[in-house]
Write a structure and sequence with these properties.
Elements: H1 2-24, H2 29-59, H3 61-89, H4 97-119, H5 126-149, H6 154-178, H7 184-214, H8 218-236
Helix pairs in contact: 1-4, 1-5, 1-6, 2-3, 2-5, 2-7, 2-8, 3-4, 3-7, 4-5, 4-6, 4-7, 5-6, 5-8
Length: 237
């Protein structure tokens, strides 16, 4: 169990690190946009080369497709609830919540799958660890910057991301503990759930925010993030 907890902490640590970095100073909008674009590209590669491919290999297309649909529906519904809350609260304080929500809905099933792999004796490559940093850190930086601009205190932002990171880290332990009862279809469905939630978050929140902040260089940053994460996935595989 201890190795699964340690790997869970490693996977979730970038979420807290991003919140701390965002709170150290006010970063230029253009830089935040580039970071978000880079992270979006990394997440697209993670969906294509990790979540989707692994889901197909483990459980086949049907549970994977069901998981994608459920993940998309859950994120869409939760995001609409956040928007309603934001409209009642004045909007500013909820600016970065969609990215945090996406990180949670992606991170929990993804790290459950990581726990399954650890329980089965699968190793964790350095390339995979780097890929997790590449995708998780920009989500946290971008969300934290938005929350801080909306008037949320640094302490509350760090606490929010610490909570998200703790849930994600514990999900790795839960995956390790549940590995004996998790069917291949269940594991594929969890990969699909993470992919579906991420896809909706990317289109609705992360990519538009990157384009708004970085303007003409957002596309280049996205391609670079995709290329790096895809290369790391190939090395790790």
């Amino acid at each position: 169990m201890i190795p699964s907890l340690l790997w869970g902490i490693v996977g979730a640590a970038p979420l807290v690190l991003g919140a701390v970095l965002a709170g150290l100073r006010r970063w230029p909008d253009r830089l935040i946009g580039v970071v978000l674009g880079f992270g979006a590209g990394a997440l697209i590669a993670s969906i294509a080369f990790e979540l989707w491919e692994d889901g197909l290999e483990i459980g086949g297309p049907i549970p994977l497709a069901v998981g994608v649909a459920l993940g998309a529906a859950v994120y869409f519904t939760a995001d609409r609830l956040v928007e309603r809350w934001a409209s009642r609260a004045g909007g500013g304080a909820a600016a970065g919540v969609p990215l945090a929500l996406g990180a949670l809905l992606d991170g929990v099933p993804e790290q459950l799958v990581l726990g399954f792999g650890l329980a089965g004796g699968g190793g964790v490559s350095v390339a995979l660890v780097v890929a997790i940093f590449v995708s998780n850190l920009p989500e946290s930086v971008g969300s934290s910057a938005d929350l801080l601009e909306g008037g949320v205190t640094r302490r509350r932002v760090v606490l929010l991301w610490t909570g998200v990171a703790a849930v994600c880290a514990l999900a790795t332990v839960a995956g390790w503990a549940l590995a004996d009862v998790a069917t291949p279809g269940m594991q594929a469905g969890l990969s699909g759930f993470a992919a579906g939630a991420l896809l909706v978050m990317l289109v609705d929140s992360m990519i538009p925010e990157a384009q708004k902040r970085a303007e003409d260089v957002a596309g280049i940053a996205t391609v670079l993030g995709f290329a790096l994460a895809a290369g790391l996935s190939a090395v790790g595989g």
